[in-house]
Design brief:
α1 packs parallel to α5. This protein starts with a helix and ends in a 6-residue tail after the last helix. By secondary structure, the protein is mainly α. The longest helix has 38 residues. The chain is extended, with a radius of gyration of 25 Å. The chain contains 6 helices and no strands.
C-alpha cells in the first residue's frame, strides 16, 4: 500500500511539473509571437540563404527553393525557449505578455527594429571615432610609427 501511494505521489508530482513546464512553454511561445521574435527564424533563414546564393552561384534556383521549404523555422523557436525558461519565471512571462499587449508595449515592438538599426549605425560610428582617437594617441606617444 505504501509503495502504491509513493508511486502515485511521484507520478502526480511528475505530471504536475510537466504540466507547469508545458504551460510555461506555451506562454513563452505566445510571448515570442507577440514580440515578433518567432518570425526571426524566417528572417535569419532568408538572409542566410541569400548570402549562400551569392557565394554559391553555380547552385540552381530549384535547389534553393527546395532547401528553403525543408527548413523548419519552428526549430529556432524550440532552441530559444530554454533561454526564456532559464532567465524568466512563469510570472515574469505573464507580466511581459501583459506589458507587450499595452499601447506602449506595442509601440516598443513596432519601433524596436528601427531603434536597433539606428543603434547599430551609431555604435559603428562611435567605434570608428574611438579607433581614430586610439591611433592618434598611439602616434603622439610614439608607440606606433607614423
Amino acid at each position: 500500500m505504501k509503495r502504491l501511494l509513493f508511486t502515485l505521489l511521484i507520478c502526480g508530482l511528475t505530471f504536475s511539473a510537466f504540466s507547469q513546464s508545458n504551460t510555461k512553454n506555451e506562454k513563452i511561445r505566445a510571448l515570442l509571437e507577440i514580440t515578433g521574435s518567432a518570425k526571426l527564424g524566417k528572417q535569419v533563414m532568408s538572409t542566410m540563404i541569400a548570402s549562400f546564393k551569392n557565394s554559391l552561384v553555380n547552385v540552381n534556383l530549384e535547389f534553393w527553393n527546395e532547401f528553403e521549404k525543408s527548413v523548419k523555422t519552428e526549430e529556432l523557436v524550440e532552441l530559444i525557449i530554454p533561454l526564456y525558461e532559464k532567465y524568466y519565471t512563469e510570472k515574469d512571462i505573464d507580466q511581459l505578455i501583459a506589458f507587450y499587449n499595452t499601447p506602449v508595449g506595442k509601440k516598443m515592438i513596432a519601433t524596436m527594429p528601427q531603434i536597433m538599426q539606428e543603434s547599430m549605425a551609431i555604435g559603428q560610428n562611435w567605434g570608428r571615432q574611438l579607433a581614430e582617437k586610439l591611433a592618434k594617441e598611439l602616434k603622439e606617444k610614439g608607440l606606433i610609427k607614423q
